[in-house]
Write a structure and sequence with these properties.
Number of helices: 5
Helix content: 55-70%
Strand content: under 5%
Oligomer: single chain
Largest sheet: none
Length: 99
């Protein structure tokens, strides 16, 4: 995980002061300067390798899916949690069987 940037510029304190209560930040210089940093591109907006246009969203989704499936490593629950979960399931099974 990365550390949060809490610098004066990142916190936009000047923009907050400039806009004031009830205002909006769309016209603030800080917003225009930092807007691209805040936008997370979706599947349909990945730049093409050529730098012109966008990649096919289906291709991007397939590549991300493949990466997730290849890199995912499930973690086992600790023994105490597995035992507790087994007890909860057993209690529910007993309750359902008793109805």
């Amino acid at each position: 995980m990365r550390a949060a940037d809490v610098s004066h510029e990142a916190m936009a304190l000047d923009a907050i002061d400039e806009v004031g209560p009830g205002g909006h930040f769309l016209a603030a210089r800080h917003t225009r300067t930092h807007m691209k940093d805040a936008v997370v591109r979706g599947l349909a907006h990945q730049p093409a390798d050529t730098g012109l246009g966008h990649r096919d969203p289906l291709e991007v989704a397939r590549q991300r899916t493949e990466a997730i499936l290849n890199e995912y490593e499930p973690r086992r629950l600790p023994q105490d949690l597995r035992a507790e979960l087994a007890a909860v399931v057993a209690a529910l099974d007993a309750e359902q069987g008793g109805r």
